[in-house]
Specification:
Strand content: 15-25%
Helix content: 40-55%
Distance between the termini: 14 Å
Number of domains: 1
Strand order of the largest sheet: 1-2-3-4-5-6-7-8
Bound molecules: zinc ion
Radius of gyration: 17 Å
Number of helices: 9
CATH architecture: Alpha-Beta Barrel
Length: 256
């Protein structure tokens, strides 16, 4: 059994063949697909898909950092309303975070939005799924400002240094490992070897970041098998062992 802990399969990229993509995933043993939220333009699509296959999908709710601009307040209110009116509907708060790669214009707003959502997750006792790009130090600093919070969650699509990985784990996070681990210049194999399976979950981030040999093409949940295979090679263990342990890590974190 495999779990894809991060897929945007509700997005338009899958409108033409979503059922086939789901079938592929189930054929290779993917039993659960977690759906991180982005913003109010896609919440409805996400919820409809999740409702169509409650056995396969689990939802998160949150406002993505790249969707934060000067008008973030109304979107954030919507997140609050959804999270607090039906908390059982969401397994976690995500994806939330800081992205200073594409644009730093709204850095201050992104920080506010992240901080607010972290506090909501804490009050609802839910794990958080963090999107961090070019901003590990800023995120660690922000998290440390709330030293009393006992963090748990995932650093999704982990792209930091080996030191960042260590810090994230010490703070209570698992590392989300996806297609990037198969890329030639990636330092993720080294990080995976150092941290070990105990701190890892599998993800695709589909439709983005497809593993080799599909790099540059649309990613899909069935490709978590490629990621599991690669991690098995790195650690010199069987793909079954990778599947079992990462599944156990995911289930424990989300209580699913
Ligand atoms: Zn994502």
């Amino acid at each position: 059994m495999l779990i894809d802990t991060h897929s945007h399969i509700y997005s338009e990229e899958f409108d033409d063949d979503r059922n086939e993509v789901i079938a592929h995933a189930e054929e290779v043993g993917v039993k659960l697909i977690l759906l991180p939220a982005i913003d109010n333009e896609s919440y409805d699509r996400q919820e409809q898909l999740a409702a169509s296959r409650p056995d396969l999908f689990r939802q998160m709710m949150g406002l993505h950092p790249t969707s934060v601009d000067n008008n973030y307040k109304s979107n954030l209110e919507l997140v609050h309303e959804k999270l607090f009116s039906q908390p059982h509907k969401y397994v976690g708060v995500g994806e939330i975070g800081l992205d200073l790669y594409w644009d730093t214009t709204f850095k201050e707003q992104q920080c506010k939005v992240l901080e607010q959502q972290i506090l909501w997750a804490e009050s609802l006792d839910k794990p958080i799924v963090l999107h961090v790009r070019n901003a590990y130090q800023e995120v660690f600093e922000l998290l440390r400002r709330h030293g009393s919070i006992h963090y748990r969650g995932i650093m999704h699509c982990f792209s930091g240094t080996p030191d960042d990985a260590q810090t994230a784990i010490e703070m209570g996070f698992l590392l989300g490992i996806g297609g990037v681990v198969t890329y030639k210049k990636s330092i993720l194999p080294e990080i995976v070897r150092t941290v070990g399976l105990k701190h890892i979950v599998l993800e695709t981030d589909s439709p983005y970041l497809a593993p080799m040999p599909y790099r540059g093409h649309r990613n899909e949940s069935s490709y978590v098998t490629i990621v599991a295979q690669k991690i098995a090679e790195i650690l010199n263990i069987s793909p079954q062992e990778v599947a079992e342990l990462t599944t156990a890590n995911t289930k424990q974190l989300f209580g699913i």
